[in-house]
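I am hoping you can look over what I have pasted underneath with an eye to the fold:
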Amino acid sequence: MKKSKLTFDGSYLGNGRGLFAFVFDGHSKAGELQCYSNVEAEYQALIKGLHHAISVGVEDLTIYGDSKTVLHQITGQIRTIKTKKLLAETRELLSTIPHYTVEWIPRAKNIAHDKLPN
């Protein structure tokens, strides 16, 4: 089983606009999105990356992100009210992947952050 890597990042710009980026096994995608907080932008970036990973049949995935809030919500270390729907969608996508782990990385080492549009 091939091990794959997904790194994600999102950024809230204000006025309902944000940016997302993800890097999956060297393939990157970035763009604009509609969101109302930085955490929401992070979730949407992760969800877009998960959709891509699932579409290519990922079976073993390590997910890297610099948002402790999102990663801790996914692992159940903290609860959420405002992003409950995004967490549920993320967990539903993760349930289709046979094996995955999540790891926090500092922003300086987040290669997806470098892909965010200017």
Summary: Strands lie at 3-14, 17-24, 27-34, 60-65, 99-104.
